[in-house]
Amino acid sequence: QEEKRQLTLKVEELERKLDSTSAQNIEFLQVIAKREESIHQCQLRLEEKSRECSSLARQLEMAIEDAKRQVEQARERAVSRERAAQSKMLDLETELSRNKTELNQLHRNKEDAERRYESRLQDLRDRLEQSESTNRSMQNYVQFLKSSYDNVF
Fold first, then answer.
1. What is the sign of the dihedral through the CA atoms of 100, 102, 104 and 107?
2. How far is 117 from 123, CA to CA, in rounded Å?
3. What is the pLDDT of residue 65?
């Protein structure tokens, strides 16, 4: 009986230990379940963040490509404007050269016209002087004739 009682005590103690261990197992299982749920939630968030990162990476790549395209277009426009400006500058230089040549020709024409005018003016002065001289001579002759007729009559 003593042996039975000791065994009973031992069984009770083992049952208490078993109960305690079962309770601990249940607690551990709950902790594990919570941790697994937490891990699952973290994995879901990680997957969501990965999708977000992938989306942002694609958007970034698209933005970079768009920026490259815009830079290239701006460069092409700048090159085009530079070519147009150079072409305009060449046209203006050509026009300036043509205008200078035309101006020089006009100066020469003006000088020629002035020389012809001066020559013509001098000719007219000489002819006027000759005409006035002839006129004076004729007036003197008319005066001579008047006085001669007066003396005769």
1. negative
2. 10
3. 97
pLDDT recorded at residue 123:
96
Does residue 135 form part of some domain? Answer: no
Residues 50, 45: Cα–Cα separation, whole Å = 8
Cα separation, 49 vs 144, in Å, equals 135
Which residues in the chain show pLDDT less than 70?
A: none
Residue 114 lies in a domain: no
**pTM, full prediction:** 0.46
Domain that residue 31 falls in = 1-92
CA distances for 86 relative to 30, 58, 93, 99, 123, angstroms: 81, 41, 10, 19, 54
The total number of structural domains that make up the chain = 1
